[in-house]
Amino acid sequence: APGSKWMLPWPARLYFWGAHGIFAEVIFTGIWEYVVSGGPTLMGTSSMWSFPIYSAGTLLLAEPLCDAMIALKIPLFLRCCFYVLCVYSWELTLGTIMRYFGVCSWDYTDFDYDFYGLITMEYAPIWFCAGLLFEYIYHYMKELEYSPAWRKYAQPSRSRSNHIVYLMMNKVISLEETTTSTTTVESHKSEKNTASKNRLSF
Q: Which of 70, 73, 111, 162 has the fewest other C-beta atoms within 10 Å?
């Protein structure tokens, strides 16, 4: 994408999407619990497995797909429908692997239109809305490209970490040059003093 060099670095986006996914899941399950049982505690739940699932899925799948579909001028409605298919594929693939190892954190067998308990058609509208929310947040993040304050922080020619290393190296080089020049001056002074002493001895 144009100006992508200004985007948040991938580790920051990985962290953000994982935390965002867990937050959204806790909110949703809390509301769902209230709708189903009427419990006023709004007790939402999630799993630590959700963090890598949401972070990797969004960074490696949703972001590049969003950029590609926008480049092809695919309408927003169709993009969100495609996100639903991607979520189902992601859930089915990871769910199969995780269930094999006994660590799958979701089970849709209580739903009417589930498939092996790993995906359910009842969630299609929810994943559609999740796609809308993703696009809104992703486009907002990309707007950082046009923020002068962020551009100043991001450093166009190198990453923030590389910039810090660059500054540290410059400090070391400057210190070495200062030390060298100081040594040279002191050496010249010593030579002058020696020459003066030799003249006085004659």
A: 73
